[in-house]
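re: ur question from yesterday

yeah so i grabbed the chain u mentioned. its 341 aa long if i counted rite. heres the sequnce exactly as i have it in my notes:
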Amino acid sequence: MKKKSLIIKGFSQQNILKIPNNFLRASYKCSATTQRMYFYSIFKYLSSSKSDNIVSFSFSDFFNDLNLSDGQKTRILIKESANEILDMKIVLEDNEKQYEVTNVFQSAKCVFTETTFSFKFTDDMKVFLDELKEIGFSLFEINDLGKLKSFYALRYYLVALSYKGFKGKKGNIKNSWYFEYSVEDLRKLFDINDDEYPQMGPFKNTVVELPLKELNERNLGIQIISTPIKKGRKIVAFHFDCIDSTKLAKVGDTNYLYIEDQHLEEGNKEVKSSDIQMDAVKIISRDPIRYAELLAEEKNNPNIFGFSPEIQAVIRLRDELQAADSEKEDSKINIESEPSA
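ran it thru and got these structure tokens back, copy pasting raw so excuse formatting
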């Protein structure tokens, strides 16, 4: 049987990291710079034909592939990460058993005079990397690692990718999927101790809302909207709705929601796609909480024109924001037109 070639539209094959989903869902904690080094080292190791557990690469490769700027501050962060990465522990889980790797790297070296990195994986980690199976993988461009600044934002991005295989399946509507984590499991995922963020307010703001705001503003192909799940008045978990925003077509300098022709054919034929093209990312980012509320309503009440819940929710949010902006403008005009005493 002829082996099928892997074709990834819109991607450069050389810059794609294919990694098992359980790696993306692993429990660990480190700085954003260390996290980039960790995944970039895996990327370089899997791209190499060497049989040992040492991976080396230049500063320029690291900075260029991740679209990062070199400088004194970056060098300081790299030096700190070289120390931190030796203490890095990850917990890998699958459906059958739990793996724990106490030390991902055995040694780390940054030679500033030669501008090179050199990392040595532990024997256990090398076994995991060498035994990767052709199932349960996620793909992402390696330079996406450099587009997110916070540890949590990058983790949400990778975790969301690991569940993308459910997009449009198992009850998920087209171009969307979701995942849920209890507060306890989020702490485990991010290795957050119980004495860190003991109050839900700071936890929700720092661990959930701000990272997702950063992620959604970066246009990495995924939009994530979180919804708290309560037991009584207490938040016990979070539901994360994910939208494949690769359906956003670039028009000039604005990202527009792409409406498929077949979708319009199922609804009112008089509705033109141009009538509902809009800056979806910018609209959602203005009030993601309200968008999540509208999306939940639309999922329970299918639109008679055949538009998907995501599209209809964005349209409704756009109209609400325009009405609010108009009301503010009218109020401003009225105040300015009032005669002075």
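noticed a couple things. The longest strand covers residues 234-244. also Residues 42 and 129 are 8 Å apart (CA to CA).
anyway ttyl
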